[in-house]
Amino acid sequence: MNILVCVKRVPDPAENEIEISSDGSDIEREDLVYSVNEWDNYAVEEAIQIREQHGGSVTVVSVGEEESEEVLRREMAMGADQGILVSDDAFEGSDGRGIATILKAVAESGDYDLILTGAQSDEGAAQIGGMLAAMLDQPYASLVNEIQVQGGTKLQVGREIEGGNQEVSEIELPCVLSIQSGINEPRYVGIRGIRKVSGVEIPEKEASDLGLSEDQVGQKAARVKRVDYFHPEMGEGAEILEGSTEEVAEKLVELLKSKGGMK
Amino acid sequence: MSRQIFAYIEHNDGAVEDSAFELIKVAEQMDPQAQVTALLFGSGQELEDACQHAASIYPQVWKVDKQEHSYPNAELIRPQLVNLLPADAVVLAPFDTFGMDLTPGLAIKLDSAHVSDIVGLDGVDGDTLKAVRQEYGGQVHTHVHCDLSGGAVLSVRGGVFPASEGGQEGQVADKTSDAGEVQAGRRFLEVREAEVGEVDITKEDILVSIGRGIEEEDNIEIAQELAEAMGGVVSCSRPVVDAKWMEKSRQVGTSGMTVKPKIYLAMGISGSFQHMGGVKGNPFIVAVNKNASAPIFQVAHVGVVEDMLEFAPVLTEKIQEMK
Ligand SMILES: Cc1cc2nc3c(=O)[nH]c(=O)nc-3n(C[C@H](O)[C@H](O)[C@H](O)COP(=O)(O)OP(=O)(O)OC[C@H]3O[C@@H](n4cnc5c(N)ncnc54)[C@H](O)[C@@H]3O)c2cc1C
Ligand SMILES: Nc1ncnc2c1ncn2[C@@H]1O[C@H](COP(=O)(O)O)[C@@H](O)[C@H]1O
């Protein structure tokens, strides 16, 4: 099975405090630590496991700036066979539809039986997979936490629904699935692995290579535009306990006692 | 504005879900004069009862009654919605596991704009909807402008908009014959219930809950010691379960357990809505987080800005001393 996995380079949630730039037009990007979007890493692992059992290939694709090459390389060190970097100034300001349009062009320039995305990325939109499937006229399932290959024509998939219950369905190939975290245990990638793929050429594609025009992607085509970032005026929020660690702990014990937080 | 607004209504056992009461408020914020139409897919008496319920909230209810819809499959429902809806419709749906399955593809098939997980509205200006979203797990908010001229599919976070009180006497129209064929490349088989664990966190009064900030499996011990000192148990956020460090039955949130403790002590948890969605019953919430601007501090009653790995053992000690 030939599998295409869409991966995005995002600020690592475990490493960063996100701050807003002074004019609110962007977040402070200066000192951000980036990594592959958490959900996409599970998607790549799943693709590799399917290939290991059933043969085929795993291609990872990312739309973004030059630096996205890092995450492609990381996923190749994990075991993806090849990477495609899609980068062009014309993509700047794309909305979800724009990104899906670009990924559709990539999907159509290859021959893929299965396309995987993450369930959601840093913007929390959870939309690219569903859009891509609709554009390709392929069946879709979101939040997939189990995949079983059934012959060459269909899969049995589990979707994680509310309460952690699992909705089981049969889905025809080719199809698009968005992958929920926890579906597998992504393998560890060491420095050695990264070094091994450091020399591998990653082809870069631009809008023109994919036959995309300005009215399809980028700021101009976008029907949904982010205007600014802000922090809302909140209620009072939490009362922050001040003092040395010992003092804070003592205050907290008193509070917990008064609220019945100790048996 | 005479744009037609539709609300996709989820229902269960003949009653509509809470989102039905909220989506109408969203529509009214967009256009106070809107004649909002509720859309219900299902089958038989269960659907009929749900439609009656929906008609107490919405002036107009459209139902599609087919055996195949007795379990909602977004892949079957999406093409039928495309058959039923006018091209420039504004469609509202809940941002939940069904909505995530349905709405992105629906926007493409209707050639409409798509905005997901809306948490606020700043009104409509001509053809521009001004919405509020969050990014980075709720660490920042954004204003988003959406062009409504070609229609829009909007998914809305649960529990952030007020609930309608109902009191409508809406009309139910049967749209089954207009919905067209039911066909999809995905067939529903069954729902498997989540496994029950050794410890039932839903019945505990005191929860010490840990998130990604626990960093390593071996550190869980410090949370266990704290929970023991307090007479409670340890629960967790999703990354801890994803890493296989704790059982799924310990996970708090929309895709885990709904808990109703008296005390919820969250350590190293950022406070995403999917996590907090599982914390009910208005407990006393204490957050320990090293990031002073973590979203959890907006919902917690008391906050401690410290490294949890250092703070937890100190707290355990103090509790043992001061008990
Ligand atoms: C459909 C769907 C369903 C989901 N369901 C759930 C669910 O049921 N439950 C759930 O929890 N999540 C759920 N999620 C995931 C959710 O979106 C978040 O990714 C998740 O809740 C984040 O967990 P966290 O707060 O532990 O991690 P993060 O968001 O990474 O936050 C870690 C926090 O720990 C702090 N920290 C780090 N180190 C330390 C330290 N040493 N001391 C103190 N603080 C520290 C950081 O400042 C940060 O605020 C779901 C997602 C999807 C898409
Ligand atoms: N720029 C991008 N390049 C490649 N894949 C992407 C990009 N943006 C989003 N995706 C994919 O779409 C998924 C869902 O993202 P989103 O809809 O933005 O929440 C991600 O997990 C990725 O798999």
Question: Could you write a compact summary of the structure shown?
Answer:
The complex is a heterodimer of chains A (263) and B (323). Chain A is of the alpha/beta class and 263 residues long. Helix content of chain A is 28%, strand content 26%.
Sheet with most strands of chain A? 9 strands, mixed
Q: Most extensive interface: pair and counts?
A: A-B, 87 and 99 residues
Q: What is the CATH class of the largest domain in chain B? A: Alpha Beta
Helix content of chain A: 25-40%
Instruction: From the alpha carbons, calculate the radius of gyration of chain B and give it in angstroms.
Output: 22 Å
Question: First CA to last CA of chain B: what distance?
Answer: 63 Å
Strand order in the largest sheet of chain B: 7-11-6-1-4-5-12
The CATH H-level superfamily of the largest domain in chain A is HUPs
What structural category arises from helix and sheet content of chain B?
alpha/beta
Main sheet: strand order of chain A: 9-8-7-10-6-1-4-5-11
Q: How many structural domains in the coordinates of chain A?
A: 2
Oligomer kind: heterodimer
What's the main sheet of chain B like? 7 strands, parallel
What is the 3D shape of chain A?
globular
Q: Share of helix among residues of chain B?
A: 25-40%
Based on CA atoms alone, the radius of gyration of chain A comes out at 21 Å
Q: What sequence of helices (H) and strands (E) makes up the elements of chain B?
A: EEEHEHEHEHEEEEEEEEHEHEHEHEH
The CATH class of the largest domain in chain A turns out to be Alpha Beta
CATH topology tier name of the largest domain in chain B: Rossmann fold
Average pLDDT of chain B, rounded to a whole number, is 96
Residue ranges of chain A: pLDDT <50 for 5 or more in a row? Answer: none
